[in-house]
Amino acid sequence: MDFNGLADPYVKVHLLPGACKANKLKTKTQRNTLNPVWNEDLTYSGITDEDISHKVLRISVCDEDKLSHNEFIGEIRVPLRRLKPSQKKHFNICLERQVPLASPSSMSAALRGISCYLKELEQAEQGPGLLEERGRILLSLSYSSPRRGLLVPEARCG
């Protein structure tokens, strides 16, 4: 939240695994609101049935701050295998903020990444108690096999 008690939220969508810019999409920022609605369609092209079977969509909500750095609010991760071709799937999910993981500064970046992944996996197996709820996100996803497209239409938070 900003000093006025409101936020300037936006959504970042990443198709994982993958580090190229084509895997990252972003909505416009909604100004001065705690209940944003994005009337935007974000589309990934060239998505295959194989991608759907093993990729994950990471949806992050952030608060834009022009005076300092943008603040992470929360995220969800949706395995695309939950989608069926040509059917819209609706989600109403709690945003979560992972509890920060301790990582010794002497670890290399690769080892730190593996360590974080294993820690996340361990936490997920132990249940939801280690995650902090950060609000909810409502969104719909649809995958068109013939057009090879993944559509992330409007989303809303509350």
TrEMBL record:
Top-level taxon: Eukaryota
Residue span, C2 domain: 1-93
GO molecular function ontology, one term from the record: metal ion binding
SUPFAM superfamilies: C2 domain (Calcium/lipid-binding domain, CaLB)
Keyword Lyase annotated: no
Entry keywords, A to Z: Metal-binding
One GO CC annotation: extrinsic component of synaptic vesicle membrane
Transmembrane segments: none
One Gene Ontology term from the biological process aspect of the record: exocytosis
SMART domains according to UniProt: C2
Annotated InterPro entries: C2_dom, C2_domain_sf, Rabphilin/DOC2/Noc2
Pfam families named in the record: C2
Protein name as catalogued: Double C2 domain alpha
